[in-house]
Amino acid sequence: MGDYKPQEIEAKWQKRWAEHRVFETEAELGEGPESETPRAQAGVPVPHEKRRKPKYYVLEMLPYPSGTMHMGHMRNYTIGDVVARVKRMRGFNVLHPMGWDAFGLPAENAAIKNRTHPRTWTNKNIAEFQRTLRRFGFSYDWRREISTCEPEYYRWNQWFFLRMLERGIAYKKKSRVNWCPKCCTVLANEQVVNGGFCWRHEDTRVEAREIEQWFLKTTAYAEQLLEDLKQLEGSWPDRVIAMQRNWIGKSIGAKVWFEVDSLQSTVDSPQLKREEKNAGRQDAGATKIEIFTTRIDTIYGASALVLAPTHPLVARLIAGTPGQEKSEKKLAEMNAPADDDGKAPDGGRVETA
Question: SS3 of 260, please?
Answer without folding.
Answer: strand
